[in-house]
Amino acid sequence: MTLNNLVNGKKLPILFVGSGFSKRYLNTPDWEGLLVELFEMMGKSSHDYKIFKSRIKTHPENRNISTGEIYAKIASELEIIFNNYFYESEMNEEQIEWIDRGLNPFKASIAQIISTYTIISEKEEEITAFKNLKDKIISLITTNYDVLVEQLFEQHKESVFIGQSQLFNPNSIELGELYKIHGCITESNNIVITSEDYEAFKNNAKLFSAKLLTLISENPVIFIGYSMSDPDIQHILMDLVSCLTKEQIESLKDHFYLVEYSKDESDIVEKVYWFNAKSYSGEETTFPISILSTDNYLKLYNELANLTPSMNLNTVKQVKRIVKDIVIESTLANTANEKVMTFLLEDINDLSNVGPSQKFAIAVGNIKEINNYGYKIRPMQEIFEDVLFNDKGINNEKILRDTYEEHYLKSQSILPIYKYVNGLTEEQLNCCPKVIEFIEKHNTVEDYLNGAIVKSLKHIPKGNTIAEVPYEWKSSTRRMYLWIIKNFSNLELEDVEKFLKEEMPKFNTYTPDSQGLFKRLISIYDLYKYKK
Predict the structure, then answer these.
(1) Of 198, 194, 212, nearest to 140 (Cα)?
(2) Angle of CA points 473, 476, 481, to nearest 5°
(3) Of 180, 306, 468, 524, which has the fewest Cβ atoms less than 10 A away?
(4) For residue 155, which phi and psi values (nearest 5 degrees)?
(5) How confident is the model over 282-313, as pLDDT tens digits?
(6) Cα(180)–Cα(299) distance, rounded to whole angstroms?
(7) Whole-prediction pTM value?
């Protein structure tokens, strides 16, 4: 059970990412550091925090509990105090959107704190090496709140599942996906930090264990950013093995690797930790966890880059998602009880030779429907990219008829459309009554705004170039977007286009509120650029 065995084993690992990873690359605060920052946001000092902590720690019922449990209890009490402070101070006026969105101020503030941290420049070489592992990891799981991993691996929103409730999301294909089991700053209400949060998580621990079992049945697990003394690791492993027989536990002996930070260690030192466990029938057993101790993460990432999958991971992921979507759509559409033919895709390994830029599709269904398939399920983000970069080769008539008319306009009220309306004949447009109705109602900037945004725009200063945006407005995505919307008619369209192109890669990491504003902004851009 060595690193060499892992690299040469032909099985891509699952990566389990802990707080030490974010600490190394973002210098984010630890659990206690985060609680201290929340105290300071209320105008209190670190000394006030120490008194608060001591009072909770020395309470008779808390004397024999772990450090992690102490922090969770501190968070529980602090949440009540902080939220009262929020509603009674000027803070609620500064963060009115939190109230509008029904956010827990305590957890929204945690998200705000963490979102201010950026990658440490000295770690850029390591970061580049880590990014090269994107196609070497079968799936990712993290207890971190930040969006570092999804940014580095450029995860699409549909591949990121937040909270325990998303572990069995029907859209999951269990390949190249990220599971954020303790919540995320983009959906701050899901953050797990208080005693009550952890109790709810514990009550559903068997769900997570079941998910993990499905992922590791054929693939090893690498823990990074944790230590063996970490309560998260201890609980995860204990909950997992408690679902298994002794024989099943024995079969996991070559499955677990833990990257352990060892200050100034330039090599990768391997050792074995024997984990004591009990099966669901109460039988005691042990199994080894391979510990990889190092401070040379660049060397570790370069070693892991030698992992070689038996098939092209991107190809398999695309095939799984396409086939799944087709099967679901075909099942829902098949009302005539037509016979379904089943084929073995014996030549699927040939797909591993397809280059990364090569477009292809696999279709299972009625041949009459295959040519139109790609236009029925396009992600909205592809439309945004095409409006900005004009790089998708989209057929205007098909996208309006099969995607906008049949899908988007049944649920979307704001979206770019004029790029595709251009060049269509009146006869072609008459086949799309929902499209016609939409463009009749969206002729001005105001048509893309709601009452709350219109009210917010009254307090935004005027300007004529994006370079004039005040610093205090640039520091907030929401404020920046609102400033551009307010002054859109004064700005050069080329400058807006450049700005949106720079913002597009960040879309998946934004909060739902910021994504909504981005959608309005790109729709207004589409209106100005393409409306005839």
Answers:
(1) 212
(2) 75
(3) 306
(4) -70, 135
(5) 667 677 888 999 999 999 999 999 987 655 55
(6) 27
(7) 0.61
